[in-house]
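for the recovery benchmark. tokens below, seq after
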């Protein structure tokens, strides 16, 4: 036998006792990590401190899919926290649509606040437990969640079902009446009269290209869709409808029909009866300065209002039942962001920001335009649609697109418009809801007149 040779430069092997100790420490670490992540969010009302602690916990333990940031402060200086959940939570990814939920705009309507905290918990835990459906959703959608838009009102709220204590912000203002409304003089309200919470949300909506959203309220059980307001518009029946009314009705029905009882339309004894659990906002009751109209008209984001509880501040022991009833529709509604068509408008030197994207049979009061990446997203039901795209210095592009039923595929139809330069194309005007976003100079004009001009130019091109 050869004699054993010991190399003093080689590390010494661990003894069996040391190996067992190391393995034990590793297993303890894994168990502690699992417990930290897997500890379910309890069903109780979380005050603003507890809410912040939970959001910070998720931000720390799941940075690969969760990113917490503040979009501003309340009157009392409390942060308005937004949690972003997705596979790339810190920045937009081309082709991945942006979604948001807002809750607790009225401080005493508290169920939505807890639902969004539970939704964060559900998505994060689903990702860590390798849920294929959750991972597919997070890989195809970037989800923004604002659990409390009115933390000051929440602090002041009592636990009454129908009282208004805590509804308003600390300045005594109803935040869902404080957004600009293009249908009335309210849109000319001086900037300094906007509440800080509203200013924060307006700035937030300008910072992202949101495609679909909903704001959660309490006091009824119904999905309400735009418009809430009407000033001199022709009503359809008793409703104030948008050019995308078919899509809005579909979106509201998706939520109501996926809910355990909302679709019955008569669950609250003190409320109206709603066919299929949905209603047009104006037909239910008119209001000016609401978020859903603002989101649609100013941010190009289709937004609906979800009334999720008959009682505004129900007993804490009912929260688990509310989550059971609302979890399926909350997820099903997010998935609707993959309806329709998406893509980019590209010119000779790259993406074109501010290109006008018009669907011929729905001339929007506020035309949809591309963002700084040249991206557009257009939620549409399956069918055939004629698209017209225009930008100064380029020929008007026209294309018939056939949109399939593919939201289960977690991706809208993808179509890019490659614009052809034209030295004879006139400078175009892009009116945006009371603002004039001009491309190439010229006087401002109304959206209707602009669309007529666009159609005329299109016919001349043919």
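predicted aa per position
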């Amino acid at each position: 036998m050869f004699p054993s040779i010991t190399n003093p430069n080689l590390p010494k092997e661990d003894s069996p006792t040391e190996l067992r100790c190391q393995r034990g420490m590793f297993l303890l670490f894994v168990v502690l990590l699992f417990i930290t992540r897997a500890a379910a969010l309890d069903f109780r009302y979380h005050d603003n401190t507890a809410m912040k602690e939970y959001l910070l916990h998720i931000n720390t333990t799941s940075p690969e899919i969760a990113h917490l940031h503040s979009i501003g402060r309340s009157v009392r200086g409390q942060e308005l926290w937004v949690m972003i959940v997705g596979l790339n939570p810190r920045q937009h990814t081309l082709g991945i649509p942006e979604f948001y939920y807002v809750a607790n705009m009225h401080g005493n309507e508290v169920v939505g606040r807890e639902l969004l905290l539970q939704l964060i918990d559900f998505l994060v835990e689903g990702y860590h437990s390798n849920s294929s459906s959750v991972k597919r959703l997070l890989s195809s959608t970037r989800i923004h969640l604002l659990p409390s838009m009115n933390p000051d009102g929440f602090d002041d709220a009592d636990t009454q079902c129908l009282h208004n204590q805590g509804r308003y912000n600390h300045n005594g203002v109803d935040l869902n009446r404080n957004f600009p409304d293009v249908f009335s003089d309210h849109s000319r309200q001086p900037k300094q009269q906007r509440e800080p919470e509203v200013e924060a949300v307006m700035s937030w909506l300008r910072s992202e290209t949101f495609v679909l959203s909903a704001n959660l309220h309490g006091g009824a059980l119904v999905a309400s869709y735009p418009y809430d307001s009407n000033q001199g518009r022709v009503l359809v029946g008793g409703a104030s409808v948008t050019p995308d009314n078919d899509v809005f009705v579909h979106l509201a029905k998706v939520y109501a029909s996926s809910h355990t009882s909302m679709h019955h339309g008569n669950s609250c004894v003190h409320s109206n009866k709603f066919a299929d659990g949905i209603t047009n906002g104006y037909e239910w009751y008119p209001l000016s300065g609401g978020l859903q109209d603002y989101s649609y008209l100013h941010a190009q984001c289709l937004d609906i209002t979800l009334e999720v509880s008959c009682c505004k501040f129900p007993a804490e022991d009912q929260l688990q039942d509310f989550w059971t009833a609302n979890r399926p529709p909350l997820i099903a509604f997010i998935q609707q962001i993959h309806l329709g068509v998406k893509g980019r408008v590209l010119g000779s030197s790259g993406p074109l920001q501010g290109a006008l994207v018009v669907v011929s049979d729905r001339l929007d009061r506020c035309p949809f335009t591309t963002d700084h990446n040249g991206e557009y997203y257009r939620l549409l039901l399956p069918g055939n649609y004629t698209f017209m795209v225009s930008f100064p210095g380029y020929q008007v592009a026209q294309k018939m697109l056939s949109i399939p039923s593919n939201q289960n595929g977690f991706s809208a139809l993808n179509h890019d418009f490659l614009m052809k330069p034209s030295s004879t194309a006139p400078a175009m005007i892009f009116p945006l809801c009371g603002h004039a976003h001009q491309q190439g100079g010229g006087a401002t004009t109304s959206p209707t007149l602009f669309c007529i001009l666009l159609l005329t130019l299109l016919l001349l091109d043919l």
